[in-house]
Amino acid sequence: MDEKVSCLIGLQTRGNFYKVELGLTTLLRNCLESETENLKSILSSYVDHFQSLDSEDAGWGCGWRNIQMLSSHLLAQRPEAREVLFGGSGFVPDIPSLQRWLEIAWEKGFDVPGAAQLDHVVYGSKKWIGTTECAALLRSFALRARVVDFGPKEESKSVVGTSVDKTVDKVRNDKMDNSEVKKSEAYQVLMDFVWNYFSDKNAIQFGQQHVMISEKTPLYFQHDGHSRSIVGVQAKHQQNGYLAYNLLVLDPTHSTPALERSLMKKIGWQKLIKKGRNTLKKPQYQLCYVDPGIASEEEMEKLKTIDSVFLES
User: Fold this and answer.
1) Per-residue pLDDT tens for 182-211?
2) What 8-state DSSP symbol labels residue 309?
3) Quick one: which H or E segment has residue 83?
4) Which one, 155, 167, 226, 244, has the greatest CB density within 10 A?
5) Do the Cβ atoms of 167 and 146 come closer than 8 Å?
6) What span, in angstroms and rounded, lies between the C-alpha atoms of 109 and 302?
7) What is the pLDDT of residues 74-112, one digit of tens each?
8) Which of 110, 124, 148, 143 is nearest to 61 (CA)?
């Protein structure tokens, strides 16, 4: 195993992507600050956009692209993650290299059921992956990747002792207090969770500002048929007293240069990035994010099992 890891560290290839010179989140923040409505937005501090390419992964690679986006944040913003991710290489690997890293995670015993489901092989294939594969890969580097499920009623599974539990409790309390939220409205449970996540359970104080930066990682955002990355959230107070939310989303199928132009000109960017309740039609969603810190050896053994928090919608 050690030989495989050493070999991969030496042979892995840096993932190619279009680098936004001024920084994607900086441009997005400028756009959000230029809005005149009574809106409050919270953004993840840094992320690079990795787009799917026709010549490489169009139609199947969105999951890998979201892992790359999440990894770009971890490498830029979390020194402890930078030291351990991808053998300390300091860069985001390409998809074939990530496929190798996932197979090594499986060999180490992470997500045994998931490995079996994909026949223990992804390298060189066009197999779709999701949040559990993202979590398994990142956990194999001792990172505390967490998974949250949203969907129709079933038995809830909770990860004890993680920061997600407090956020989940806040969402459940909000849901019970809001009689207008129907059980069928999966979007509301999801939106409440995302707001509480980025606002750190409302610890962020806006004051006179209406755009704030969060230390939280972007969210790997999975649903049937596609996955994207949530890099922030926006809220608007309505006359009925409730909050209307927009998720701020980066889609791997979008062109990065086109995204950059739209943000720089402040034209059409809302359609590309803002996703409100009308866009959330799926019955089930999954999120993956990374808590701070490095897991101990004892914790690593527990992390091999990918348990998720379940929120009924």
Assistant:
1) 434 667 899 999 999 999 876 778 888 899
2) E
3) helix 79-84
4) 167
5) no
6) 11
7) 999 999 999 999 999 999 999 999 999 999 999 999 999
8) 124
Question: Do residues 218 and 45 touch, judged by C-beta distance below 8 A?
Answer: no
Strands 219-223 and 226-237: antiparallel
Tally of CA atoms within 13 A in the half-sphere of 31 that contains its CB: 25
Residue 237 has pLDDT above 90, yes or no: no
The length of the chain in residues reads 313
Q: What is the pTM of this model?
A: 0.91
Residue 79 pairs with which residues in a beta bridge?
Answer: none
Give me the mean pLDDT over the 245-249 stretch: 97
Catalytically active residues are 62, 226, 251
Alpha-carbon span 27 to 264, nearest angstrom: 6
Sign, Cα dihedral of 277, 278, 283, 288: negative
Q: 288: which strand partners?
A: 147, 220
d(CA 308, CA 313): 15
DSSP code string of 194-256: HHHHHTTTTT---TT-SEEEE-SPPEEEEETTEEEEEEEEEEEE-TTSPEEEEEEEE-TTS-H
Strands of the chain, DSSP E: 39-44, 143-151, 211-214, 219-223, 226-237, 243-250, 274-275, 285-294, 308-312
Residues 63 and 133: their CA atoms lie apart, in Å, by: 9
Q: What is the mean pLDDT of the segment spanning 119-129?
A: 97
Predicted local distance difference test score (pLDDT) of residue 168: 54
Average of per-residue pLDDT across 255-259: 98
Pairing of strands 308-312, 143-151: parallel
